[in-house]
Write a structure and sequence with these properties.
7-stranded mixed beta sheet
């Protein structure tokens, strides 16, 4: 069974950094496009970042460009999100997801999320 388990969230102050991890199992991680999404209270889930499996091209939401970095280690079936210079508006539950198709397509598998809270 496919599993994605996020970790690394927490309570930090504005300007701090966090590194989220997503450990996966039950599918061939190395050939899946991977993404990070987030959902703030009262808001819809939004795209944060994605990375292709084939050439490791990365894509970011405008709001996080220059501050967040997505990466993957196929040998460990793990996805990362390095978040620097965190802002209050980054507060959300962060989810990792796996897409069998293009990164703009429907994501097939999702994690349960990890809470990131940034105090101003």
């Amino acid at each position: 069974q496919e599993q994605l388990v996020e970790s690394g969230g927490g309570l930090v102050q504005a300007g701090d950094s966090l590194r989220l991890s997503c450990v996966t199992s039950g599918f061939t991680f190395s050939v899946f496009n991977m993404g990070w999404f987030r959902q703030a209270p009262g808001k819809e889930r939004e795209f944060v970042a994605a990375i292709k499996w084939m050439d490791r091209s990365t894509y970011y939401a405008d709001s996080v460009t220059g501050r967040f970095t997505i990466s993957r280690v196929n040998a460990n079936n793990t996805l990362f999100l390095q978040m620097n210079n965190l802002k209050f508006e980054d507060t959300a539950v962060y989810f990792c997801a796996a897409a069998r198709g293009p990164i703009s397509s429907t994501y097939n598998y999702w994690g349960q999320g990890t809470q990131v809270t940034v105090s101003s």
